[in-house]
What we know:
CATH architecture of the largest domain: 3-Layer(aba) Sandwich
Strand content: 15-25%
Largest sheet: 6 strands, mixed
Protein name: UvrABC system protein A
GO molecular function: ATP binding; ATP hydrolysis activity; DNA binding; nuclease activity
CATH superfamily of the largest domain: P-loop containing nucleotide triphosphate hydrolases
InterPro entries: AAA+_ATPase (IPR003593), ABC_transporter-like_ATP-bd (IPR003439), ABC_transporter-like_CS (IPR017871), P-loop_NTPase (IPR027417)
CATH topology of the largest domain: Rossmann fold
Organism: Paenibacillus lautus
Keywords: ATP-binding, Cytoplasm, DNA damage, DNA excision, DNA repair, DNA-binding, Excision nuclease, Nucleotide-binding, Repeat
Number of domains: 5
Bound molecules: adenosine-5'-diphosphate, zinc ion
Number of strands: 23
Amino acid sequence: MNQSIEQSIKVTGARNKNLRNVSLAIPKKQITVFTGVSGSGKSAMVFDTIAAESQRQLNETYSSFIRHRLPHYGQPEVDSVENLSVAIVVNQKRIGGNARSTVGTITDIHSLLRLLFSRIGRPFVGYSDVFSFNNPQGMCPHCEGLGKVNTFRIESLIDKEKSLNEGPIRFPTFHPGEVRWKRYVATGLFDNDKKLKDYSEEEWDTLLYKTGFKPPNPTKEWPPTSYYEGIIPRIERTFLSKDSRDSRAYREAIEQVVAETACPLCHGGRLNQEALSCKINGTSIADCARMQVNELIVFLESIEDPAAATIVDTCITRLKQLLLVGIGYLTMDRETATLSGGESQRIKMVRQLGSSLTDLTYIFDEPSIGLHPQDVHNMNRLLLQLRDKGNTVIIVEHDPDVIRIADHIIDMGPRAGLAGGTIVYEGNWDGLRHADTLTGKCLRQRARLKSEVREPTGWLHIRDASLHNLKQVSVSIPTGVLTAVTGVAGSGKSTLINQVLPGVYPEAVIINQDMIQASSRSNLATFTGIFDDIRKLFAEENRVSPSLFSFNAKGACPECNGSGTITMDLAFMDSLVSVCEACQGRRFHDDVLQYHLRGSSISDVLAMTADEALDFFTEPGILAALLRIQQVGLGYLTLGQPLSTLSGGERQRVKLAAELDHSGEIYVLDEPSTGLHLSDCERLMSIIDRLVAQDGTVIVIEHNLDIISQADWIIDMGPGAGQDGGNILFSGKPAELLESPHSVTAKYLRQFRT
Ligand code: ADP
Ligand code: ADP
Ligand code: ZN
Ligand code: ZN
């Protein structure tokens, strides 16, 4: 008995968020999956208790000098967490990064290639630094290692039909009357009434490009000490320099007049000519960077030089791990800033596999996101590998195909928010399938393929699409029904549906899980618009001004500006949020809180859940908005919960709620099942059905078989990823897909046949 305690992480009395004094043991060196409806408290336990406590204890071991510079983790509300090892969280936060961060650099594969080329490349050009585009020795001198340059689209920037007086420069601060326009008019170099199309070559060159001289005959508005600078160098200086504030503030205007094109010198290779001329079997390091993982493996396997054997083997092992996690379609030169959250997470996973540390605790947040059932199968092997290296693996997951590989399962619930926060089942997969919990029930009665599908009301047409990996794709998508777009990760689903389709049908409404663009003070009440009504009610009841109850007026707590929290920006680290001491999180001045509506202060109302508020209010407008929130399954959220604290799935459903009363729209949903428990998926299906019933067209990109099985139409892409994908394999009714003998999607979908 004692020994088994030794061999587990022991949490006693956890009370974060909605957790109700939960105690549990997580077996070490095994895989434990946490599951349960969204809002049940999985993150509160796994991230806010276990991961936070590990980080806090680790920080304690540093000197106070270092500690002050580390991200601060509040003391989790828990009696004790024993037997913890260092926890590494592998989440879906995008890696981001600047243009110098690529898949190759972040996985260290680029360093291995550099080493390889410096050993056996012909001709030999130097040490491995010579092959680094982030090092002055290696970078292309023209683009400084970025592989691309900004070129002006002169015809967009300048209207040649106009004279200087008529304002020919289409750029902020260069319009008639504005400072920079005045400069050109005052030089005395130009006839200000002459159309630009009539300029001599000399005049045109001066206007656009010349610099560094004093105009000989300026008007008296010309500042006497100033040197002349043509339009292009002028814009470059202020708006294109890398870190200037203006380059961020005027980004949209810049995008209108500047195009990114491949560098004419290195053609995107990023390196100088000497480094590019160094080759192995006729292939340069830049050629390698342009290959997909699977192609690069083939190239490396063809190298026979024994001097390179170790490097080649290390590199191939790394690359095969990328294949296993389903991102074999990525090229080494792909910038990390363009990777999706799921791709970012899988890269982080591979980075961890490369480490030789053992006895760590790895924490994964829904690793199945973005993965076809086929990819999930492969990724499971990596998770098992991590465990077998002697690590403890904790996974928050809804996908039954991941849950079943767990050695131990903790099911949280029974429901969300206040109705959750306890453990409802603990044990193995077999037991879970028979358990009397929501998860158990859903596993016993998973959706069946629909026997009767809805008939299309019309068609949306895409012709000859060839963005990214798409191979001249033409496809018709039915309107008035639910279409599921399927295929392995990287096959081209998002490219077709999120990028090409809105280009052809700009009216499509994209409902994703991205942050809702709003101020830090936005919450459910302000987003749904009911806060204005609530303030009015308070004002009428108490005969005061409604603005008293606004977050940005004098009634709000001045310390936190009505947010109830103080956020400390720690520059490059996660910022630190703490409850405002002045108002203790109540957001308003004491004298505002004395005003009541039906016995509650404005702060009390913001603390109500949407469910509670439905009992509290009687006003039809407010009730309708609250009802929509309840209908998307978010009745457990409080009115004052900041939108920034919602999970991705919650954000998406808040956006869906806002659409519930619209009709006839085209909706695009990218993996709406993310973050959703099987029972939440049923609810999502009923929302989608309602949108379809209101003449809506719903297109989902999905991997979740419970949702795909409910579609009226399926578009399957593939067959592989990246260059091996980009084709439509099937477009038709689900029952027909099942007949297709080679489709991987059909293979997994067959288990849903009625
Ligand atoms: P899960 O991970 O199971 O989806 P969480 O642990 O994230 O659930 O959330 C548990 C409960 O705590 C939910 O009801 C959620 O709305 C609530 N909650 C989460 N973050 C906050 C917050 N910052 N303020 C108030 N309640 C929160
Ligand atoms: P899916 O949605 O099926 O996972 P994607 O449409 O995201 O697939 O990707 C299809 C192909 O297009 C992949 O090879 C991917 O690497 C490439 N791709 C996607 N986005 C970009 C981008 N911003 N820049 C370059 N290539 C991209
Ligand atoms: Zn270049
Ligand atoms: Zn305050």
